[in-house]
Amino acid sequence: MLRTGDVLFAAKQRLEAIRLILEVTSCHLDDWRLSLAGAMTILTHSSRYDIAETLLRNALRHQPEHIPIQAYLAHVRMAGGDIAGGKALFSGMVRRYPAQQAMVCTYMSVSLLAFGFPMESLQILLPCLESGYVDASILSNIGCSLEHLNRSADSFSWYEQALALDPTRALIRFGYACALLKAGRLREGWPRFFDRELTVGDRGAWYLALPRLRPGDEVAGRRIILFQEQGLGDTIQFIRFVPDLLAKGAEVTILVPRTLVPLLARSYPGATVREIDGFGREDDYAYAAAIPDLPYIAGVMSMHDIPAPVSYLRADPGDVARFAALLPERRPRVGLVWAGEQRVRSDDALVDRRRSTTLAALGTAVTPVDATLVSLQFGGLRSEIAGWTGQALCDPMGAVRDMADTAAIMANLDLVISVDTSPVHLAGAVGCPVWMISREDACWRWGDSGERSAWYPGMRLFRARERSLAPVLQEVGAALRIWVKTWRPS
């Protein structure tokens, strides 16, 4: 049942997968292990916390003292919006199971980190060390807490101690890699980052069996596949290294989601750009590489090595003119993005919550302002525009077919303001000035501090200093009003 569920989720048949799990578990309500496994499968692949909670409660009915079940139930409670209730469940476990303090605190710290409470995570983990209990999970979670607090350099020794105890744990190695990269220690970080488990939609894709391209491999005259891994923003950020491979004589095929195909095909005419879904087997490829590995393959070993052209992706002039006709003439024009993609997997969905805000919150913070506001919001949260009653907001996204169209809109803008999601990278890649609103636990690519990024010369970073984005939104609004007063047409 679970294997079939995993296959259905991987095939994006989510309703069928959940239906199968419910049907099987409902016929075996006395099998608490089956209910627990079903809940974990659903939490791995979806955000159906209500169903996971039902299954966990059934498992707990048979095993009321089972610590992991109680911990998952507390986590699900927090995921469902009851942060205080979930914390209370964890606190009760700490009191009831003093002999298992380390186990309970490890589970609790994972949840606290997932919901944006790194300081609380650190505060519950350190006493475990003082009590004399040390294991790789506690040490790694301390490192992760420090990295989320933007103290990446302080996290290194904790990750190293964790790996000394358990060098096989891929998640610990990946956490250490991200901390090194966040601190700017690329030479040490990239090889560990390369060693990660790849995040791909189709784990059975034939090209994953090809040798992975590594630094120093001979590429002249070789056919190479570069494939999308992780998110659209990662692809946009790291695709800049394609010219390096082409200059060395490689024959490059780029596999990306349909929304990126026209833009990349126009920007890299020397490469072949294909849609990743349904890409059939082809012979004579020598290597494959995940696109986020390109800076490592290109030998970018310090922040000073990062190639940061003002623009490296090109919008179609005809599309630029088409969208210019849809936009108000009044300048400056400022694009707004208030939320990331609403992803399905639980871990991704929790990151989306931490990085996103609402149109009401962002719009209220930046208005009134003497500028034309243009929505660049994509996905389901574009619907918030219907309820917006503030300053006029032009919404051309209904005419957008793909990211080439979004790039064409950006070519008509004077500034983009966005949370940490793919339009940030797109604006940087097409040379549009961009202000990025970063959550408190900033992604590794933005470093621990500073207003500027080595990846995009036209970017300004606004960093949240607490879990809520409300204060940093006010900073953005104040900065925008100053910017508008000094703006001049280029």
UniProtKB/TrEMBL annotation:
Keywords: Transferase
MF-aspect GO terms: transferase activity
Entry keyword annotation includes Transferase: yes
Official protein name in the record: Glycosyltransferase family protein
Domain of life the protein comes from: Bacteria
Provenance organism: Gluconacetobacter takamatsuzukensis
